[in-house]
Structures are given as structure tokens and as C-alpha cells.
Structure to design on (633 residues):
């Protein structure tokens, strides 16, 4: 089974600051980490490859420094790492990103299975996983919390829902995204780190993935950000006291007052 | 790289459960498994036996991190290495092939058994005997305070094989936990390092195959001396890691604790205390690193340097942890904060693997020889 796992380098949320004037994230001096959901995607890919046989390729689109994160992925068990990197990709929204990643996957000869984290902690859109599946015309499921079995070209998995889980049969080739509950990512081993130090990270640019320049980066992104702002804190808080029955009466009165206003 | 891996294990796996392990006195098997999964179990074992092929320095780097988290966990890790060193240093190829690979993979644990009721600082008081009967050695006696006792799969045990020959009449053997006539006695309740297991080993006509002897007959004490020369920097570095952990807690607390409307770190009385803790910790670290590098260069004599670093770093750990409790004041004395455990854990470092008084004897005797 050929598995590709998509990884994104994100700023470490613990240290993120917003520029008070522009309301955009100030990335300067902020440590970059692997998107935490993607760590679980990587772990699941490595685990599945070990259990069912196959290889894991870690794929990331990002600036050259994302190569370090990909080395980390190799240290945690990925067999190979590919960085899709070109100045032309800058400013890409999820539409242009999925196009770029889809071209990269095709360039790599496709995959039986692609695993992504359910979303990145910086953009929080949760669109790249399903978008990539759409572009590649793959079976797709989000928020997988457990892979029960892979057999006869089908993955049997559990999709997390608010009130339980769905059991799914996903035919391969497929793409699924994972939630944190799926596994506990391993700590990179000493041998893994030694391998990662020597591994060659394959870098593909826009020409290397045969991409149409018009569909890349800012130019290929239909999303336009008009304004970024922090929502103002809302209203005052009132604590109701007294007996439960009394509190309910007070609450109903207050709600009625609002509705009738 | 070793530091990075050990650091991550310590931060993610050791620190979150150290208080519970201390409270329940539970052996940290899960953490040792994590250490093995990260390839650190065989750090000191040669590559041909499945290890990383590292030296004392590599061990010291990893153990410093573990001890920063919990000396009980670090001791359990170190005790397995202590049990393996006699095999590494004096064992035959067959013994190495049999016992080292499962240690390197982390599937098995080892322990070192020297101490007896009447043989503590005076190792010549050993009363456990081994008598050859046909093709088997028959052991009788009791070892006490054996770290990893009851948890390890095999033990490097010293026993008297010829009572008339004194120090040359002792030999080392590998005893497996399933050997007939071998059983475990009392499990100790301790002041500190409560996650580590300390237990009696009882040999009652314990019969083992003849080829379980480590090294030549009568070479037991030489093997013990060679082993502890190499392992003492490991104990010393537990002191360094522990002191660092206590310093980290003390500085963190002093920055956020407000008294007289100021963080207490702004008071010189506290600052100087913290400064001395930092200075001593750094000095201990420098000495231990230097001695570890010295030992890895295979000098003829390493006893003096090895003893010096054990004494210095363990005394530093005792002072630094005591002062960390002082900086945290009443909170420091409570189990809600980690420093009281650190202070309890520190004391053993001045006692085990040769008390600091014995270490000073070693240094003194070496000086006496040098200045002839």
C-alpha cells in the first residue's frame, strides 16, 4: 500500500501574537511546528504501513524551512519526504493549495491512500483534505478516529460524530482526515533521527509538478480577505441565584423581556 | 540527538507521572518501554549486540535528562545498565550474545547484585556462596537492597567461590529469574526514588549451568570494580539532572511568587540562593562531563576521577534540592510541588553505589599512591 501523508508546518500556537494594527499573525521569531493533527495522520500512516505493508511518503507544500519538519516526519517513521516549494505558491488559499498538492501527488505517481490531519491550527479551514480528495477523485471521509481493518481494497474505519461514531467502508484509493483520538504519536527514536539527518528531501517546484502558473498562489486563489478583526467582547454577565425553581422563573422572565423588547 | 530524544521522553512521559509513581511506588515499566522504543535502552551496548555502541558520555547525556524528571525512573534505567556492565566488561562472547540483545531491544531488564546484610561499604563481607557440583553451580545466600529486584529478568550476582582466597575468591554469575532455588524476598519501602524497586534476592540451593559464570573464576571483584568505575559518573549525573530540575522549579516559582508586592526573585537573599544553586549545578555538570569523556578515552586508572565526580555531584544535588525547598518555602514542603520529592530523592545519591565516605577513601588512597 502506497501511503502519502500531507503535513503542514504551522506557527507554534503557544507563542503566537497578533499584530494589533493589522490583526494578522506576527510570525517573526515564532517557532514552527508540525500541525498537531498532522502528527496523528503521520502516526496512522506509519502504523498502517507497518501492519499491512507499504511505504509512507511525507508531503508538504511550504517554504524551504518546512524541510526541517519533513525530516522530523522521517525520524518518526516516514520512508521518504517531498517538499513542494516555489515562490509562485505564496499566498495560496485552500483552492490553490489543493491544486498544487494534487499536481504533486500525480507527479509522485498517485497513492492508494492519502491521510491528512482534520485541519491546520493556523487557518482552521479543514478544506484541504476534502479539496484534495475532490481534485483527485478519491473516496473521502473526515474525522476518522479509528482504522479497524484494511482488506480487499477497503478500509473499515470509524468516523467521529458529535453523538458517537459512524462505521464506514471506504474503498481504496481514498483520502481520509484524522482526529487526535486516533492514536498517540510516537517520540522520534534515535535511529529515526539518524536516518532523518541523512535523508534527502526531494524538492519539487511549480515546473516540477507540471502546474499551470495561473492556478497557483495568490493568482490562483479566489479567496479574498477584506478585513481581519477581533470580535468585541459581548454584553454583561448576570449570575442567577436562589433555588433552582426561582432561577428558572427569573430566566424565563428575562428571556420574555428580551423577546418582547 | 540523544539529548533531544531523552528530553522529549522526560517532558512528555516522565514528568507528568512522577508524582503518581512516587505516591504509588509503582515500577515505571511503561516509561522504560518508551525509552526502549526510542532506541535508548541499548545506548551503551555494542552495535554487534543490537545497541547504539555509545560510551559513558552518551549514557550520561541521556540519564541527566531522565533524572531532571525523576531520579526513581532514572535509577531503574541505570540499574539495568549496571547489571549489564559485568557482562559487557568480562563476559564471554556466548554470554554477551545471549543476554545483551534483549537488553538492547528493551525486551528484558537486568540488575546488579552485590550488597548483603554484612557487605555494604565493606564488600569483602560477602557471604553468598557458589559451589561447583558436576556441571552446575549451586548458590546459597541472600542479597539485599537490589535495585530492579523482582522486576529484572536476570541478575549479575557476585558470590564466594573460594573462601580461602579472600578478594580473589569471588566470582560473578548470571542468574535468571526462572532459575530453580531463586526467589525474591522483602520489597523495601524507601524515603525517595520510590518508583524504583528495591528488593531482596534469596538463593536456596539455586542451581545454574556451569557456563553462567561471568569471566574467570575468582575475577568477581575485579569485574565489580571495573563496573562501578564506569557506573559512578552515571550516579553523579543523576545528581546533575536532579539539581537542574530543582533549580528550574525554584527559579520558575521565585519569578511568580509575590511577597511585599514584588516577585521574590527580586530580593537579593533569594537571588543569591538561586545563583549558588546554578553555579554548583553547572560545576557538577562540567566535572561529570569531563570524567565521562576521560573514561571513554580508556585510561589505565579511572577510580579517582570517577569517585570525585560521584561525591561532588551528589553533594551538590543534596544542597540544591534542599535550597529549592527553601525557595518555595511552605509550598516547597508540600507534596503539591515537586521539590520535596526531589529533596527526598537526592539523599540516596550520597549513599548508593558506594557512600560518599567510601568515595573519599578512594580519592584519598589514590592521592597517597600518586605522591610516592
Amino acid at each position: 500500500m502506497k501511503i502519502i501523508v500531507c503535513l503542514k508546518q504551522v506557527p507554534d500556537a503557544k507563542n503566537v501574537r497578533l499584530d494589533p494594527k493589522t490583526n494578522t499573525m506576527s510570525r517573526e521569531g515564532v517557532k514552527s511546528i508540525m500541525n498537531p493533527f498532522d502528527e496523528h495522520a503521520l502516526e496512522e500512516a506509519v502504523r498502517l504501513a507497518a501492519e499491512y505493508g507499504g511505504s509512507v511518503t511525507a508531503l508538504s507544500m511550504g517554504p524551504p524551512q518546512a524541510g526541517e519538519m519533513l525530516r522530523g516526519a522521517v525520524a518518526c517513521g516516514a520512508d521518504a519526504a517531498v517538499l513542494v516549494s516555489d515562490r509562485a505558491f505564496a499566498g495560496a488559499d485552500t483552492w490553490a493549495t489543493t491544486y498544487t498538492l494534487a499536481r504533486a501527488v500525480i507527479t509522485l505517481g498517485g497513492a492508494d491512500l492519502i491521510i491528512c490531519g482534520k485541519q491546520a491550527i493556523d487557518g482552521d479551514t479543514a478544506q484541504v483534505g476534502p479539496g484534495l480528495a475532490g481534485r483527485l477523485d478519491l473516496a473521502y471521509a473526515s474525522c476518522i478516529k479509528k482504522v479497524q481493518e484494511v482488506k480487499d481494497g477497503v478500509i473499515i474505519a470509524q468516523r467521529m460524530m458529535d453523538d458517537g461514531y459512524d462505521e464506514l467502508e471506504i474503498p481504496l484509493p481514498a483520502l481520509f482526515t484524522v482526529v487526535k483520538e486516533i492514536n498517540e504519536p510516537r517520540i522520534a527514536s534515535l535511529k529515526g533521527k539518524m536516518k532523518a539527518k541523512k535523508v534527502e528531501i526531494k524538492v519539487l517546484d511549480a515546473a516540477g509538478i507540471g502546474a499551470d502558473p495561473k492556478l497557483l498562489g495568490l493568482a490562483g486563489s479566489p479567496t479574498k480577505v477584506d478585513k481581519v478583526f477581533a470580535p468585541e467582547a459581548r454584553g454583561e454577565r448576570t449570575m442567577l441565584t436562589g433555588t433552582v425553581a426561582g432561577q428558572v422563573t427569573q430566566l424565563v422572565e428575562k428571556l420574555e423581556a428580551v423577546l418582547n423588547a | 540527538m540523544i539529548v533531544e530524544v531523552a528530553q522529549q521522553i522526560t517532558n512528555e512521559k516522565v514528568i507528568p507521572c512522577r508524582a503518581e509513581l512516587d505516591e504509588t511506588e509503582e515500577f515505571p515499566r511503561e516509561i522504560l518501554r518508551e525509552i526502549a522504543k526510542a532506541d535508548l535502552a541499548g545506548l551503551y551496548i555494542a552495535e554487534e549486540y543490537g545497541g547504539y555502541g555509545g560510551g559513558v558520555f552518551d549514557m550520561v547525556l541521556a540519564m541527566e535528562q531522565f533524572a531532571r524528571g525523576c531520579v526513581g525512573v532514572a535509577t531503574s534505567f541505570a540499574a539495568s545498565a549496571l547489571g549489564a556492565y559485568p557482562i559487557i566488561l568480562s563476559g564471554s562472547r556466548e554470554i554477551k550474545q545471549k543476554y545483551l540483545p534483549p537488553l538492547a531491544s528493551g525486551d528484558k531488564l537486568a540488575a546488579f547484585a552485590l550488597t548483603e546484610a554484612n557487605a555494604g561499604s565493606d564488600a569483602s563481607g560477602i557471604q553468598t556462596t557458589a559451589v561447583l557440583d558436576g556441571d552446575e553451580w549451586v548458590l546459597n545466600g541472600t542479597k539485599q537492597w537490589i535495585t530492579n529486584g523482582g522486576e529484572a529478568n536476570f541478575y549479575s550476582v557476585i558470590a564466594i567461590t573460594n573462601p580461602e582466597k579472600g578478594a580473589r575468591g569471588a566470582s560473578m554469575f548470571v542468574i535468571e529469574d526462572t532459575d530453580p532455588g531463586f526467589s525474591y524476598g522483602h520489597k523495601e519501602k524507601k524515603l525517595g526514588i520510590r518508583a524504583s524497586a528495591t528488593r531482596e534476592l534469596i538463593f536456596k540451593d539455586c542451581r545454574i549451568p556451569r557456563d553462567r559464570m561471568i569471566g574467570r573464576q575468582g575475577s568477581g571483584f575485579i569485574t565489580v570494580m571495573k563496573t562501578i568505575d564506569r557506573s559512578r559518573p552515571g550516579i553523579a549525573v543523576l545528581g546533575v539532572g536532579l539539581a537542574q530540575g530543582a533549580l528550574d522549579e525554584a527559579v520558575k516559582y521565585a519569578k511568580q511568587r509575590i511577597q511585599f508586592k514584588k516577585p521574590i526573585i527580586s530580593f537579593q537573599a533569594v537571588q543569591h540562593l538561586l545563583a549558588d544553586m546554578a553555579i554548583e549545578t553547572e560545576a557538577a555538570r562540567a566535572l561529570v562531563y569531563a570524567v565521562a569523556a576521560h573514561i571513554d578515552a580508556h585510561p589505565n586508572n579511572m577510580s579517582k576521577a570517577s569517585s570525585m565526580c560521584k561525591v561532588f555531584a551528589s553533594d551538590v544535588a543534596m544542597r540544591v534540592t534542599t535550597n529549592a525547598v527553601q525557595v518555595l518555602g511552605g509550598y516547597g514542603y508540600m507534596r503539591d510541588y515537586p521539590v520535596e520529592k526531589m529533596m527526598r530523592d537526592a539523599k540516596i545519591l550520597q549513599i548508593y553505589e558506594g557512600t560518599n565516605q567510601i568515595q573519599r577513601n578512594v580519592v584519598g588512597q589514590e592521592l597517597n599512591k600518586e605522591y610516592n
User: Anything to note?
Assistant: Strands of chain B lie at 110-113, 129-133, 136-147, 154-160, 170-176, 182-187, 198-209, 213-214, 258-259, 262-263. The interface with chain A takes residues 1-2, 4-5, 8-9, 12-13, 34, 37-40, 43, 52 of chain B (CB under 8 Å).
